[in-house]
Amino acid sequence: MTDPLIMVAPTGARWTKRDHPQLPVTLPELIKTARSCHMAGAGAMHVHLRDDRGLHTLDVGRYREALQELSHAVPGMKLQITTEAAGHFSVDEQLACLAGLSPDWASISVREIARAPDCAPRLYATCHAQRTKVQHILYDVADAALLMDWLSKGIVPDGPISVLIVLGRYDRPLAGRVGDLGPVLEILPAATRWMVCAFGPTEHQCLTGAARLGGDCRVGFENSLCNGDGQRWRDNAHSVQSLVSALGRMAA
Q1: Separation of alpha carbons 19 and 21, rounded Å
Q2: Are 43 and 74 in contact (CB under 8 A)?
Q3: Whole-prediction pTM value?
Q4: Model confidence at 250, in pLDDT bands (50, 70, 90)?
């Protein structure tokens, strides 16, 4: 087993301070979280931002400021923006965020872009032209099949792809199961760089299972506030540190 990349997703689009007081929603809180999670073993951060009301935002100006401040505070940490619609933003607005910011790395949900299939070629062409690395978010086999269709048609540029496979759901809610990985992985090309995140108390179980299979791990409050026993993590760094320890024991 090679060492997986550990990405922390500390905020998400939906949780609030009422769900966990250590959820980072302001930029100073996000910077503090980035530092502590990097020290705990996270090599990357999945960045969600909030507006003045605490709501999920794709504001280019806020993103530009946040990426600049985070890069200065934690220069060794890779930064990925989210383009998540979260039931609010259109595909045109997601594209406007990508085009206006030109980030180094972005996550893009195949399912969300499929809401406006005519826009998909422009969105992926924009990312390709500005050299934005894309991590395609897949929730199930249908999403993986759609990505492969877009790849075959040239909508997604040819070459090695990177995906995030999501286990479980916010909305039902449904805890992740590592057994759901197999059917998705079977569809993807062998050279695919893949990462897993998982909702609910089985988060770490799913992530260690993914690491055994050669996948990277995304961990943090976006997906789960609690450990396998249902006890809340103290903060994101506590969850990262626990995962790093589990992966270390597994590799020993």
Answers
A1: 7
A2: no
A3: 0.95
A4: confident
